[in-house]
Amino acid sequence: MEGEASVRFCAAFFDRDQTLLYADPALRAERNARIEAWSGKPFTLTPAEMMELFFASRPPQGVKSVEEEMASLRLYWKSLLLRAGVSEGLEERGEELHQMTWLKGLKLFPETLEVLQQLRGRGMRMGVISDTSPSLPLTLEAAGIGAYFDCAVCSDLVGVMKPAPQMYQTALDALGVAAGESLYVDDCGEEAEGARRLGFTAFHIDRSRPGDSRWRIQSLRAMVAYLQDIG
Predict the structure, then answer these.
(1) 8 Å CB contact between 220 and 109
(2) Which of 144, 174, 168, 142 is nearest to 155 (CA)?
(3) What distance in Å separates the CA atoms of residue 230 and residue 116, rounded to the nearest whole number?
(4) Burial of residue 71, with CB atoms counted within 10 A of its CB: 0-12 exposed, 13-18 middle, 19 or more buried
(5) What is the C-alpha radius of gyration for the chain, rounded to an integer number of angstroms?
(6) Can you give the pLDDT at residue 4?
(7) Whose C-alpha in 22, 88, 94, 152 is 20 to 30 A from the C-alpha of 31?
(8) In angstroms, rounded to a whole number, what is the distance separating the alpha carbons of residues 32 and 37?
(9) How many CB atoms lie within 10 A of CB 145?
(10) How far apart are CA 126 and CA 13, in angstroms?
(11) Which residues of 192-217 are buried (b: 16+ CB within 10 A; e: fewer)?
(12) How many CA atoms lie within 13 A of 77 on its CB side?
């Protein structure tokens, strides 16, 4: 505690999905219902199969602009419809799914806004580090939290994915802060550990069960509690 209390934290970084926000299950159900209506049979594609189609729709080097991202998503929706058994109107129906889901259905966890406000009230700068595409800042804006973040680092533009050190270092460089004066939280334990190896004070958030240590937490509120504990 004595060593921790001597650290002045000036920045906090977050993963996005399942950390700050999640996809609205109601929107997913509506999407699947439309696909079932078009195909005339139950929608049975597994998440793994959908991810396979998603990555197959992307350029090998990843997408490097929002325009490329949208083009790859449109291809993804058409591929998904074909795999789901839809044989007619693929262009129009794929576009319908794209418009239904693009920057839509982004739900904040109950404590997200409260914690961001508290950390900002402490004068902390904040960033997002996410294995995703160039629309990352747009998704934060659509979720109503974009104004809280001073940087948003996505894997497609960096060229690597977490836990590669370059992902975290890019965010640190963007804010001009050191890992030792920064907090990090991620729903993936391996990615939280990747930040910890660089010197971050890193938390693994798992909302499915109570936190069993200082570093595995169930709510973002534990980050604020940690700062209060160390003074």
Answers:
(1) yes
(2) 168
(3) 19
(4) middle
(5) 19
(6) 54
(7) 152
(8) 9
(9) 22
(10) 6
(11) bebbbebebbbbbbbbeeebeeebbb
(12) 23
In our burial notation (b when 16+ CB lie closer than 10 A, e otherwise), range 90-117 reads: beebbebbeeebbeebbeebebbbebbe
Q: How far does Cα 128 stand from its chain's mean position?
A: 8
**Residue 141, token pair as written in the block:** 């804006």
d(CA 206, CA 218): 5
Whole-angstrom distance, CA of residue 32 vs CA of residue 61: 30
In angstroms, rounded to a whole number, what is the distance separating the alpha carbons of residues 47 and 28? 12
* pTM greater than the 0.85 cutoff: yes
> How far, in Å, are 18, 38, 153, 184, 204 from residue 172 at the CA level?
22, 47, 10, 11, 19
Instruction: Provide mean pLDDT across the span 104-132.
Output: 98
Q: Closest Cα to residue 155, out of 137, 134, 177, 140?
A: 134
Phi/psi zone of residue 199: left (φ > 0), alpha (ψ -120 to 50 degrees), beta?
left
141-188 residue pLDDT tens = 999 999 999 999 999 999 999 999 999 999 999 999 999 999 999 999
**Could you please report the per-residue DSSP string of 13-28?**
EE-SBTTTEEE-HHHH
